[in-house]
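User: Patatin, Pseudomonas amygdali pv. mori str. 301020:
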Amino acid sequence: MKVLFEKQGKEIFASRDFKRKGLGFWKKAKHSNAGLRAVLERRFGTTTIGELKHRVLIPSVNYTTGKGQFFKTPHHPTFERDYQMTLVDVALATSAAPVYFPSVRNDRGVFVDGGLVGNAPGLFGLHEIRTFLAPDRNARVRVLAIGTMTVGATVSGG
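Assistant: Predicted structure for Patatin:
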């Protein structure tokens, strides 16, 4: 994923049209998600969560219900819906960060950025492991977190 963003970042975060520049952040997201969608479709096609080799939990917020939504592989008997969703739809839902990308609508509601459900959404994955996947043992875990800050935007302490 890191290489995907590094090599195709200019397509994902394409130049803004006049409306997006003129309206600033008041009425429209800074970027369209068309570039992101195109990159994701080329990379993942119609692959669904159920086809993944490894178990995943991808956070988003269902803006329609006001609740956190955690898209998951079917790694527990009660997880019956998410496996049918395409990776493209899930990625667009979790990346719809207000101001940066527009919200995403699908047959389950309107979705926005997974980071809004918690300021460290990777911790939900750790909870999932401890609760469902490996409650009685230590597991090796990798968490991928993609932020929106740039190197020049950090604040130094002091």
